[in-house]
Design goal:
The complex is a heterodimer of chains A (294) and B (659).
Chain A (H helix, E strand, L loop, with lengths): L3 H17 L7 E5 L6 H8 L2 H4 L2 E5 L3 H9 L5 E4 L1 H7 L7 E9 L3 E5 L3 H6 L4 E5 L4 H12 L7 E5 L16 E6 L2 H7 L3 E5 L9 E6 L1 H6 L1 H20 L1 H12 L4 H8 L2 E3 L6 H9 L9
Chain B lengths: L4 H53 L9 H10 L3 E8 L2 E5 L12 E3 L7 H7 L2 E10 L2 E11 L1 H51 L10 H28 L10 H18 L3 E9 L1 H8 L1 H18 L5 E6 L2 E6 L5 H16 L12 E9 L6 H17 L5 E3 L2 H22 L3 E10 L5 E12 L3 E3 L1 H11 L1 H22 L5 E5 L2 H5 L3 H11 L7 E6 L7 H14 L2 E7 L6 H6 L4 E4 L1 H5 L4 H17 L2 E5 L4 H9 L4 E3 L9 H8 L1
Parallel strand pairs in B: 3-4, 9-10, 12-14, 14-15, 15-16, 16-17, 17-18, 18-19
Antiparallel strand pairs in B: 1-2, 1-5, 4-5, 6-8, 6-9, 7-8, 11-12, 11-19, 12-13
Helix pairs in contact in B: 1-3, 1-4, 4-5, 7-8, 8-9, 10-11, 11-12, 12-13, 13-15
Chain lengths: 294, 659
């Protein structure tokens, strides 16, 4: 009888503790777009690595939607550029980058059906298509500043990049489209030409990273560490066997061939485990908390 | 620490229910939080998505066009009461006019949602998010507010609460109550009944519906019944004499207390009768113990039948019985009962085809006159019994103080006798035996004399009977034999050849080793056995006749004569004279004393002529007068002894008488 009661109590307590036990990791939800620089996460998800770490990717059509998701706390982290970081920072003072995916090197482009000269000189209103609530605006402002294109001539069309395939080519009306890889591929096919990109202009500095708040980083530290490791593994896989890498992430890219995929990779500089000091310093100067990047 | 089944069951059940209630509560609160989180996530997703759609659809003059979107959103989500789009602190679109009155302090931006989802969803009035749109290059912000439908939200949780309370509180309580009642009805109460039955065994419990308990019940009934029977059996056995089937001493000791109390209360008397079978040992030895046991049982039955049902008959051991007779009308009635008892004992049916000749000596002590407790009554009854024995047995005596004194004397006598032997205070005197016709002393009888330095001369009548009763006669007889033979040897050496009669008790004769001791004495004193008459009484024929034959035949072979003392007064029958080698018949003094009566003369003549016919020598004892002598002389009877010639005298005086 003396041993029975402690055993019973131990069993009961175990049952109660088990009942109230919380999962080892809360789910880490990341809001993400189908940007070429974010393919390491697609690769990690396809391989099941993210599932093992209880990380879920939520796909949205635009970078600004990422901000909405993050703002609604539907996503604990998001993929984006400095633009989204700067937009969210007033409401999320502790927002910071956890890891950098890539620096845009031609991935962010301005396309048009006419030349820059023609744009400067046209008397007509220029239809401007861009995601206004994204880094597209930053790139546009840099462009019109550089080439003195008056804003008054611009007719803004705020669209998601996924809808960029709805833009009709015009031979008569000048059009400017601010976009990014791989959406530019379709536009090229219908006749638009790149007039400026992050490759051709040093004034345009776009870096893609994974952003979250300090508290979320602390809470999901292990999972974020896993993400950094998965990104590294994915990048190594890409280096080792691009075809295999492409085949793995192909469902995420839509109608993009291997050659087009390889071409898209030339539009970014992948930032590996050791981030460029220059890039990190520049981000720091721009007001970003870069502790996790050093 | 011990607790009842009832308490234990309630504790276990309550503990189990509390445990599961705790578990369910934890689960319930988890579910509630999860449900609330789902609600919050859904609402934040929806408001975020709505804000995003609006931000994509807004052109400054078409903001209002989003009303249908808002209305559809509100209609599809029952937890949203209404939706409002603010811009520049003014309402642009609202699906519910009452939102206009709401204070914006209850509005929580979805990015600020923190803490318990349940607390948030039940305590928050509205949630909001920004709608960002561009007018050309200008970034503009609107605020989208969802007023939460708190009634529906609370109702959803209240329903859960009710279900939980019903399922995990009321129903379990009801189940507990039912289980407790059932346990009480079918377990606890029956066990209480069993406990009471185990304690008192007064009322036998009825059948229980629970099989295991009913097994216990039937087992207990069987066990207690068996124990009860065994107890009664043991009780009876403890109070019953195993041989006779009547009560034993223990029962007597129990019952006598009641009888004494009752008699004291009613100022009544009762008789405690101590009954001892006479010569029972002889019967046992001669006929065997089996026969003796049958005799005892027969006697016990007889005694039971001789008294009334409420009288007590007990066997306290051996051949001793105690009767407590308390239902008699008078002393005469009591005496009649005692007479009847003795009569019945005397007339016992033949036992083992042999006449047992059993009689009973009885001692009677009366309550309260002779004692007021069992011990005193028994002691006094025993004294009275002893008196009966002493007076010839087959008698009854009542206890008196005189008897008590007599017994005390006998006890003292017993001790003095043994001391006298050790201190050599006995002597043998010799009484001449005279030829009736010649007057010549031709023999003598050795008679023991005892002179105590304090008490003086003690008559053989006083101590011989005591010695016979307590067995001292064997030692005394050995001394007599040794002393007499020594004296005879001395006389033979002196040339005095006369016949000497030496008395031997029946007990001594029949003792194992008697012949050997006789032979030893004869060896020590090599007298002529032909001059010794072994004088025995008729008691020798009472039992062990086979042994008597052996002894008598051996004595005869050794050359001794056998003399039958006190002929006609004891247990002799003519068949003994035929069976056994009796040489001399000694006519008892009582017959000589009656010589002058007709009957006395007839008896004397008969005995003398019988003896003469049988060729036996005769010695008439106790001749004290010439007339007696003359009478005897008419028959030409052989020898006499008595005071007419001389009393018993010391050996040196006897030699002078031979003179």
């Amino acid at each position: 009888m003396n041993k029975t009661i402690p055993v019973i109590i131990a069993i009961l307590m175990s049952v109660i503790v088990y009942s109230v036990k919380t999962p080892h990791h809360d789910e880490l939800k990341i809001s993400i777009t189908k940007w070429i620089g974010y393919t390491p996460l697609f690769y990690a998800e396809s391989k099941g690595w993210l599932h093992n770490s209880n990380i879920e990717l939520t796909y949205v059509s635009s970078l600004s939607e990422n901000m909405y998701m993050f703002n609604a706390r539907t996503a604990t982290a998001y993929t984006g550029t400095q633009f989204e970081h700067d937009s969210l920072k007033p409401n999320f003072p502790t927002i910071l980058p956890v890891v950098l995916f890539d620096k845009s090197y031609g991935g962010d482009v301005i396309m048009s059906n006419v030349s820059i000269e023609e744009l400067r000189n046209t008397p007509d209103n220029i239809n401007l298509f861009l995601e206004q609530d994204s880094v597209n605006t930053t790139i546009l402002n840099a462009f019109i500043k550089k080439y003195n294109i008056p804003k008054s001539k611009l007719t803004y069309h705020n669209i998601d990049q996924q809808l960029s395939n709805t833009i009709k080519f015009s031979k008569t009306r000048p059009i400017i489209i601010v976009t990014y890889t791989p959406y530019n591929i379709f536009l090229e096919k219908i006749g638009f030409k790149e007039i400026l990109s992050t490759k051709t202009s040093d004034d345009i500095f776009v870096v893609d990273g994974l952003f979250t708040t300090q508290s979320a980083l602390t809470h999901h530290r292990e999972q974020f560490n896993d993400i950094v490791r998965y990104i590294s593994l994915a990048n190594k896989a890409l280096d080792a066997n691009p075809r295999e890498y492409y085949n793995t992430i192909r469902p995420y890219l839509g109608d993009v061939t291997f050659e087009e995929f390889e071409e898209s990779l030339t539009d970014i500089k992948i930032l590996n485990e050791t981030n460029s000091k220059d890039i990190v310093d520049r981000l720091s100067r721009e007001g970003m908390d870069v502790r996790e990047l050093r | 620490m011990k607790i009842s089944i009832h308490s234990f069951s309630i504790t276990i059940i309550t503990g189990t229910v509390m445990f599961f209630t705790t578990l369910f509560s934890i689960h319930y609160f988890q579910i509630r939080e999860q449900t609330a989180k789902m609600m919050v996530d859904t609402l934040t997703l929806e408001i975020s998505e709505t804000a995003y759609l609006i931000s994509r659809n807004v052109i400054s003059n078409t903001i209002v066009g989003n009303r249908s979107l808002l209305e559809r959103r509100v209609a599809l989500n029952k937890y949203v009461h209404s939706a409002t789009l603010y811009g520049d602190n003014a309402i642009i679109i609202s699906t519910g006019p009452e939102i206009l009155c709401d204070s914006k302090s209850t509005i929580v931006n979805i990015r600020d949602i923190d803490g318990s989802p349940y607390d948030f969803i039940t305590n928050t009035g509205s949630i909001s998010t920004e709608v960002v749109y561009f007018e050309n290059e200008k970034r503009k912000t609107l605020t989208l507010v969802y007023k939460l439908h708190s009634a529906h939200i609370h109702e959803a949780f209240d329903n859960n609460n009710k279900e939980f309370t019903y399922l995990f509180a009321l129903i379990p309580l009801g189940v507990i109550a039912i289980i407790v009642l059932l346990l009480r009805q079918y377990v606890t109460q029956p066990m209480t009944v069993l406990r009471k039955y185990a304690y008192s065994q007064t009322s036998v419990p009825l059948e229980f519906p629970i099989k295991e308990l009913d097994y216990i019940r039937t087992t207990m009934i069987d066990t207690f019944t068996r124990l009860d029977n065994e107890r009664k059996e043991l009780y009876d056995m403890a109070r019953t004499d195993s041989l006779s089937g009547i009560s034993n001493r223990y029962h007597l000791e129990e019952k006598i207390i009641e009888i004494i109390e009752q008699a004291s209360r009613r100022s009544e008397e009762f008789a405690l009768v101590f009954l001892d079978l006479d010569n029972f040992k002889s019967v046992n030895d001669s006929l065997g113990h089996d026969v003796g046991d049958i005799l005892l049982k027969t006697i016990a039955d007889l005694l039971k039948k001789s008294v009334r049902a409420n009288d007590i008959v007990t066997r306290i051991g051996g051949d001793e019985f105690i009767l407590v007779i308390n239902d008699y009308d008078s002393d005469m009635h009591l005496i009649e009962i005692i007479d009847r008892i003795q009569y019945n004992v005397r007339n016992t049916m033949n036992v083992a085809a042999s006449e047992s000749n059993v009689t009973a000596s009885i001692g009677i002590a009366m309550f309260p006159k002779d004692g007021e407790d069992l011990f005193t009554l028994m002691k006094h009854a025993d004294i009275a019994l002893y008196n009966s024995k002493d007076n010839g047995k087959n008698k009854y005596s009542f206890y008196t103080d005189i008897m008590n004194n007599k017994i005390q004397k006998i006890i003292a006598m017993n001790n003095d006798m043994r001391t006298a032997l050790v201190l050599n205070r006995y002597t043998l005197h010799y009484q001449p035996q005279v030829e009736i016709m010649t007057g010549k002393i031709v023999g003598c009888e050795a008679l023991i004399r005892w002179v105590d330095p304090i008490k003086g001369f003690i008559s053989p009548d006083e101590f011989i009977s005591v010695a016979e009763q307590n067995g001292f006669i064997v030692d005394l007889g050995s001394w007599i034999m040794s002393t007499a033979f020594a004296q005879q040897y001395e006389w033979e050496l002196q040339g005095i050849n006369i016949n000497m009669s030496v008395n031997f008790s029946a007990r001594q004769i029949l003792t194992e080793g008697f012949l050997e001791s006789l032979d030893m004495v004869l060896t020590k004193y090599p007298i002529n056995p032909n001059n010794i008459s072994i004088e025995i009484t008729e008691y020798v024929f009472l039992n062990k006749l086979d042994r008597v034959h052996v002894v008598f035949d051996t004595l005869k072979k050794m050359g001794f004569k056998i003399s039958l003392d006190d002929f006609g007064t004891g247990y002799s029958s003519l068949s003994y004279l035929k069976q056994f080698p009796i040489d001399i018949i000694k006519i008892d003094k009582s017959f000589i004393d009656d010589y002058n009566t007709v009957d006395g003369q007839i008896f004397l003549e008969t005995i003398i002529k019988m003896a003469q016919t049988l060729g036996k020598s005769l010695v008439a004892e106790g001749v004290e007068t010439d007339d007696q002598l003359k009478f005897l002389q008419t028959f030409q009877c052989c020898l006499y002894q008595g005071w007419l010639c001389s009393k018993a005298v010391p050996p040196e005086d006897f030699v002078l008488l031979l003179g």
